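ok so for the tutorial part 2 we go from a plain amino acid sequence to predicted structure tokens. step 1 is just haveing the sequence, like this:
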Amino acid sequence: MKKIITLVCFFLSAGTVFGQQTVFNILKARALTEAGKPDQAISLLNSAITEAKESSLYTCRAEAKILKGDYSGAIADYNEANKITSFSGEYGLSRIYALKGDAATSLYHLELSMKSFYKKSEKEILLDPAFGTIDNRQEWRQFWKKEWYSVSEKSISEIEYYISIGKVDQSRDVLSEFKKNYDNNSDIIYAESLVNLASGNSSQVMKDVSGLLSTDPGDEKYLRVLAKAQTEASDPAGASTTYSQLITSGVIDAGLFLLRADCYQKTGETEKALNDIGKYLEIYPDNMTALRLAGKVEVKSGDNLKALQYFSENLKLHPNDPECYMDRANSYFISRSWEMAINDYSMSLDLKPENSDAWLNKGISLLNSGKTDDACHDFRISFRMGNKRVTDYLSRNCIK
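step 2 — the prediction. this is what the tokens look like for a chain of 400 residues:
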């Protein structure tokens, strides 16, 4: 069941601002369902629904019910979501009837969704495993003979696809064809911004997207592109402000907290960074990236003991990740705990022997432990890998 169900919680990205508690409840419930704990998700959402009758709470509860195999309960929740916000449950209903093998009813609801604010991209629908039960049916093939997407939608989707696979030149070609047939409207400017961002022209992206936001200040996709451009332009303060706009507007994406935390740690706002990481860890307590970032923020703030706690927790959860060993080794290195650093660098190198920095730092740790011959062995390996920073250590300690 878990393989065929993907989470499709639906949210308004414009026109509706959810309260922060509603956002947190949805994020937490989504995480629990992803972790295969639908009963806990349902319990959380039951409580949340008594406080706020939001359509998004019902659609998320429906997904948890699907994971349990409670299709009737899920259908009831999607219908309740539709009563609160028109069409918000249609895509979910389409998925559930597809899972039941009822192609006609599934496509009826999919058509309603396609004609609404909740319209999904063609790629998202075609890759949705729920439709695998009906995608060989005549009704499905007939459905896709209709033109569901405008030229603008198709062009932007194609540009996004080429960029996602690293084919920026092809995305430029699509943009060129797109511009031949249309005036310089907002879709053209947005598409051009995507290509410019992929090409490294972040300053032009910031200029163009700022213009788009002046007429549509709450648009999620514009804000996301602007934040990426600001990050690429080494403007973490600007990016953190943009991520704050996304968060406070009610965009339901836990990853925004980590993105903003990374900006805060670059601007030296340690408390804000740790606060955002803490929020993320409330939702995903075992997340490797969040624990690693927390440790690095603590290192930067000068609290190496706290950093070691985060890195050790990460290793306990992810004992086969070489970077987790590297993180803790570097922290031991900073505190001059040479033997502990040597052990962790060795474990990291067992898993990833091509890391020249690990060989260098392990060599320095060995040198400080009085093991010069072993250190020189590691320095030479690092040098053969092309690490020029090891040259001084070799000349001062290993050439006789």
